[in-house]
Automatic annotation (TrEMBL):
Catalytic activity: 2 5-aminolevulinate = porphobilinogen + 2 H2O + H(+)
Domain of life: Eukaryota
GO cellular component, one term: chloroplast
PANTHER family (alphabetical): DELTA-AMINOLEVULINIC ACID DEHYDRATASE
Pathway: Porphyrin-containing compound metabolism; protoporphyrin-IX biosynthesis; coproporphyrinogen-III from 5-aminolevulinate: step 1/4
Organism (species): Lithospermum erythrorhizon (Purple gromwell)
Record-listed E.C. numbers: 4.2.1.24
InterPro entries in alphabetical order: ALAD, ALAD_AS, Aldolase_TIM
Cross-referenced NCBIfam families: PRK09283.1
Protein name: Delta-aminolevulinic acid dehydratase
Length: 422
């Protein structure tokens, strides 16, 4: 039997044994490498490795003694500078002291200096519900359904909670037979929304439930308020109905009531009505800057709530107006709103920032149905990367100043974010 000992500069081999007769090998720990030859097998024991890197077989004390004696281990060579492509001009470095790209040159640096974060906790998941047992797809909103309130709703909420989305907002599709000019079904305490709230609170006591306060799903006219015979939307009479609606929702267990009607004075009146009934703990998220936008089309299909005539421009805001949002903001603050919402979201980033800079209250943004459907359509046609555009659009809303985002992407985005973290 022959025995050879040598050191390999690459793998720090400490022992080589050759046994042509019995093919026995030494098992002294570390890595064993067998090399068959015509005369036998070389078995090589390399020094131990950790995480794929070779580890020295010397003790700490021996290594320190080597350094003290001047036997410093060689450091790896600095890799050569990558070559520029042919034809690149040779120029002197620019005389600039600040190069912002230095803070963007690696994933670790970019993550360290990221100013805005996006989490499932930032999402409020809008859910459409109806009286039926089956979930029915919404043609203009791929991936969205009118959920049966007994089963489909519970299942969808459970999925959202599994990925960290614990806030929802309910939007009901009311049977036409229950609609009338004054929207009385809105405050029926055994109506679709109160029943759904009670069911959800029974199944998920810590779920945060937002509700919509407006008459359009309940109105035979499809408007957010009571319509006079000449077509005028009646403000104060509508507010009276909204107060009863908000109290009915609070009594069922709603955590946050959300007046989306844009009637003047409704936040203060709702606050007073809630407090008078002992619901001081129920929050108000006011649709502070809700614009008369063309981005709402798919939503109105989902609820079958298109206005029977005219439009909503006498109560929703003019998309051309910027400073007017401050008027609404200051009024809602004074009347007792807890959260201020801007709707739509992405086309109105400047309004989100305006409210963020002028109010200490939390700011919400609603990424509305038209925004959702455009991203879905672009992704289906392979014009854009749906996943990346979805996350970028949500990040933009956060960057503009939104604390929470009402988005139909809540479940999909949360799953994506959870996947990234894993």
């Amino acid at each position: 039997m022959a025995s050879l000992a040598f050191t390999n500069s690459i793998c720090n081999v400490s022992l080589v044994k050759f046994d042509a007769t019995s093919l026995k090998t030494s098992s002294l720990g570390g890595n064993l490498v067998r090399c068959p030859t015509k005369k036998g097998v070389f078995t090589i024991k390399a020094s131990e490795s950790k995480n794929g890197q070779i580890k020295s077989s010397k003790s700490i004390e021996e290594c320190e003694a080597d350094v003290a004696a001047g036997n410093v281990p060689d450091a790896p060579r600095v890799p050569p500078k990558p070559a520029a492509p042919a034809g690149t001009p040779v120029v002197a470095p620019l005389p600039i002291s600040r190069r912002p790209r230095r803070n963007r040159q690696s994933p670790a640096l970019r993550a360290a200096f990221q100013e805005t974060s996006l989490s499932p906790a930032n999402f409020v998941y809008p859910l459409f519900i109806h009286e039926g047992e089956e979930d029915t797809p919404i043609g203009a909103m791929p991936g969205c359904y009118r959920l049966g309130w007994r089963h489909g709703l519970i299942e969808e909420v459970a999925k959202a909670r599994d990925v960290g989305v614990n806030s929802i907002v309910l939007f009901p599709k009311i049977p036409d037979a229950l609609k009338n000019a004054t929207g009385d079904e809105a405050y029926n305490e055994n109506g679709l929304v109160p029943r759904s709230i009670r069911l959800l609170k029974d199944k998920f006591p810590d779920l945060v439930i937002y509700t919509d306060v407006a008459l359009d799903p309940y109105s035979s006219d499809g408007h957010d308020g009571i319509v006079r015979e000449d077509g005028v939307i009646m403000n104060d009479e509508t507010v009276h109905q909204l107060c009863k609606q908000a109290v009915a929702q609070a009594r069922a267990g709603a955590d946050v009531v959300s007046p989306s009607d844009m009637m003047d004075g409704r936040v203060g009146a709702i606050r007073e009505a809630l407090d008078a009934e002992g619901f001081e703990h129920v929050s108000i998220m006011s649709y502070t800057a809700k614009y008369a936008s063309s981005f709402y089309g798919p939503f109105r299909e989902a609820l079958d709530s298109n206005p029977r005539f005219g439009d909503k421009k006498t109560y929703q805001m003019n998309p051309a107006n910027y400073r007017e949002a401050l008027v609404e903001c200051h009024e809602d603050e004074a009347e007792g709103a807890d959260i201020l919402l801007v709707k739509p979201g992405l086309p109105y980033l400047d309004i989100i920032r305006l409210l963020r800079d002028n109010s200490p209250l939390p700011i919400a943004a609603y990424q509305v149905s038209g925004e959702y459907s455009m991203i879905k359509a672009g992704g289906a046609l392979k014009m854009i990367d749906e996943e990346k555009v979805m996350l970028e659009s949500l990040m933009c809303l956060r960057r503009a100043g939104a604390n929470i985002i009402l988005t139909y992407f809540a479940l999909q985005a949360a799953r994506s974010l959870c996947g990234e973290r894993r």
